[in-house]
Design goal:
heterodimer, A: 296 residues, MetI-like fold, 0% strand, B: 471 residues, alpha/beta, D-Maltodextrin-Binding Protein, domain 2, two-stranded antiparallel ribbon, disordered N terminus
């Protein structure tokens, strides 16, 4: 019975849709509305203030620090992670299969840890007096290079970047390895016969054929770089310091909402971040749109 | 059968969207700010009598939400038992939570908060915001009610100095803090006795002693660098002693030029000197409070700034015989307005009665029982912490740390002070923390320090969206 089928379909769809609307779409929509008010987060009412919150964003030096830091993260983290991921993945292709498999598992380990755990572990590593990094430097006779990594404005953000890259590179090694394995073996053999070296093989054969994976990786990593909240919140001085050196938009937003009780203003930050992320995703996917390569 | 359904056997994109739109209307209606209609039923309560000074309705249920952190919540449960004894018909709903703010926020918004909230712990609700949103009850009735177990005294008169002020916003006392915290410099009495060091009374003595300590290979100071507010406290204390209550008031009232007062610049210079002479343990700037305090307990540093909670926090870390004691921050000049015994003291564990509580009289009565001397003494015994009720620790044998805290309070007498800007203006507190962190890392000068905080204070003073308070 067609009628029954339709009823069944609606019956199956509606609960999921309702949940999605109530818990996903409606909060999104509300954030847009709240960002135009002075809601405090505890009051039952909110006053409409128009674009005030957005105007304020432009003059908030800590927020601008956050934007600058997120922009730096966005420049560095995806590039380095993808470069490392591709390098390791193509190395794994050429290494013996058992060893490669073992490495792939080891690289994936950080992915199994919660980001908070990663951040706590790395804050031990960075401890200026007893941390692994400084102790290692001192043991190697490089004590002069030892730093108060998280307390020096010049090193704090790079230290955070290193953690973000370390924690995500393993996942992309596995992703790229899978993509590389999808490339027919005879292409590599042909390249080898034509006398292509390792670099030529990588840049002329491997890279063009894993383009799509790289593009997706850019989007994911870009979004992760625009976030970075957990690592910064757990690890850095302040957090977000020293003196704003590691402030990120997510942290500003969190503090504005939950410490300062300015949910309206915090929502404006959230909306700004939403558009930044959306723009990034669209740009990354559009820019690389090319005709799909057909493999044999 | 409906012919249309035969033509379109499957829901099209359009019908799905339509359904979603229809569904979303009531969903959006249940939105964050919809609890605005304050349908509070004014609880008339019972008549006020000497036995029942707050007019509690004997059978009204009572809901108490308590932060269950380092102090647990047994003390709150005890006070509930007292309540139940007096009002056997009252149904008591107790909740001991870790994330009070998260749990209570939606209830404040929806207008059905509990009758008592202990707004404490990480993620607590910003009290200034609650006040601004008229979400809290004026507790003056409770303060003027007779104390439960100290005949002839009002609740107001049984509290330590500053407790009532700490809960007062724009002239209304809306929160009562249960514990009393004193800030100062901590040292190990046994270590000092062993090395023949004497706790300094003036800053010059401090600098001389630090030089001496440094020669022995011990770092004179360490601090919880990951959270710069810790090193702020002795700096601001020193300034308050130099400039007296006027200096503190000028800062809290956001007066123009307040952060450029001589007392503050002098204190900042003193701390810049501390850093300049390398009296701070190297690496302190990146240590968390646990790491710095552990290093101090291992006698790697002689002094550490902290509040009076330090002793209970270091339980199990401090070695036996460490005998930690709290000292008052040394005086910067010979002409300080406050005596050297003056201490920065404030109360915390903030109990409040929400404005939209169903049983506000019961909530206040509950606080009267919680703030009785017997209840406070039991709390002090169980938690090694000074409660906000005066004399609660009389006759108790105290540990080294808590004993020194009580002595400091006694020595200070009425010369306790506290800055209110931290609770009034959280963004200013952040600006001060950041600046002080930079100052003690030698990245900015004392003049820059006061200039940049002044700038933040001026911006705040001009910001019409922030509720202002004065004292």
């Amino acid at each position: 019975m067609r009628h029954g089928r339709r009823r069944f379909l609606i019956g199956a769809l509606v609960p999921a849709l309702v949940l999605h609307v109530v818990f996903v779409l409606s909060p999104y929509a509300q954030a847009f509305w709240v960002s135009l008010t002075d809601w405090t987060g505890v009051a039952g009412e909110a006053r409409f203030v128009g674009a005030d919150n957005y105007v304020r964003l432009g003059g908030d030096s800590l927020f601008l620090d956050a934007v600058r830091n997120n922009a730096l993260l966005l420049l560095v983290v995806p590039l380095v992670t993808i470069a490392l991921g591709l390098f390791l993945a193509s190395m794994l292709r050429t290494s013996s299969s058992r060893l490669g498999q073992g490495y792939r598992i080891v690289y994936f380990f950080p992915q199994l840890l919660s980001l908070v755990v990663v951040a706590v572990l790395w804050s031990f590593v960075y401890n200026p007096n007893t941390g692994l990094l400084n102790s290692g430097l001192r043991a190697a006779g490089l004590g002069g290079l030892a730093q108060s990594w998280l307390a020096e404005p010049a090193f704090a953000l790079p230290a955070v970047m290193a953690v973000l890259i370390w924690s995500s590179v393993g996942f992309y090694v596995v992703l790229f390895s899978a993509a590389i394995e999808g490339i027919p073996r005879d292409l590599f053999e042909a390249a080898l016969l034509d006398g292509a070296g390792k670099w030529a093989t990588f840049s002329r054969v491997t890279l063009p054929l894993v383009r799509e994976s790289v593009q997706v990786a850019f989007v994911y990593l870009g979004i992760a770089a625009l976030d970075a909240f957990a690592v910064v919140q757990v690890m850095t001085v302040g957090p977000g310091g020293p003196d704003g050196a590691t402030e990120v938009i997510g942290l500003s937003l969190y503090r504005t909402a939950f410490t300062y009780g300015k949910f309206g203003y915090a929502s404006a930050m959230g909306v700004a971040l939403f558009f930044a992320t959306l723009t990034l995703a669209v740009l990354a996917l559009r820019s690389g749109r090319k005709e799909r390569l057909e493999l044999a | 059968m409906n012919p249309e359904s035969q033509l379109r056997p499957y829901p099209t994109r359009r019908t799905v969207l339509k359904t979603a739109a229809v569904l979303s209307v009531p969903a959006l209606g249940g939105c964050v700010t919809s609890g605005s209609s304050s349908d509070k039923v004014a609880e008339s309560g019972a008549d006020k009598t000497t036995e029942n000074p707050l007019g509690v309705k004997a059978d009204a249920p009572l809901e108490v939400v308590v932060f269950k952190g380092g102090y647990g919540d047994d003390y709150a449960v005890q006070a509930e038992a007292t309540y139940k004894q007096k009002y056997p018909q009252a149904e008591i709903d107790h909740k001991g939570l870790q994330k009070v703010g998260e749990a209570m926020q939606p209830r404040f918004v929806a207008g059905n908060p509990p009758d008592v909230v202990d707004n404490t712990g990480a993620g607590r609700l910003d009290i200034a915001t609650l006040v601004g949103a008229s979400q809290v009850t004026d507790l003056s009735g409770l303060l003027d009610a007779p104390s439960l177990d100290q005949p002839g005294r009002k609740v107001r008169d049984t509290l330590l100095p500053g407790v009532v002020d700490d809960g007062t916003f724009a002239g209304r006392t809306v929160a009562l803090n249960f514990t009393y915290t004193v800030w100062g410099l901590w040292y190990s009495k046994s270590l000092f006795a062993e090395r023949g060091w004497t706790y300094p009374k003036t800053w010059d003595e401090m600098v001389a002693l630090c030089g001496e300590i440094k020669k022995t290979g011990v770092a004179p100071w360490t601090y919880q660098g990951k959270y710069p507010e810790y090193i702020n406290d002795p700096l601001l204390s020193m300034a308050a002693k130099t400039g007296g209550a006027d200096l503190v008031k000028a800062v809290d009232n956001l007066q123009p030029g307040a952060w450029k007062q001589d007392g503050l610049v002098q204190a900042a210079t003193a701390f810049a000197e501390l850093a300049g002479q390398n009296f701070l343990m190297s690496g302190s700037e990146a240590l968390s409070h646990t790491e710095a305090q552990a290093a101090w307990c291992q006698k790697k540093a002689a002094f550490i700034p902290c509040g009076s909670w330090l002793e209970s926090e270091q339980k199990g870390v401090a070695p036996a015989g460490f005998d930690m004691v709290l000292g008052a921050v040394p005086a910067r000049s010979g002409s300080d307005k406050l005596p050297v015994t003056a201490v920065q003291a404030a109360s915390s564990e903030s109990f409040l009665v929400p404005a939209k509580a169903k049983n506000p009289a019961g909530g206040q009565e509950y606080l009267r029982m919680l703030f009785s001397k017997a209840s406070a003494t039991a709390f002090a015994k169980a938690n090694n912490t000074l409660p906000a009720v005066a004399g609660a620790t009389d006759g108790l044998t105290l540990t080294s740390g808590l004993g020194s805290v009580r002595d400091a309070v006694t020595a200070a007498g009425s010369d306790t002070f506290t800055y209110r800007f931290r609770t009034w203006y959280a963004p200013l507190a952040k600006a001060v923390d950041d600046a002080t962190g930079e100052l003690v890392n030698k990245r900015i000068s004392p003049a820059d320090w006061s200039a940049r905080i002044q700038k933040a204070a001026d911006a705040l003073a001009k910001d019409s969206s922030v509720t202002k308070f004065t004292r």
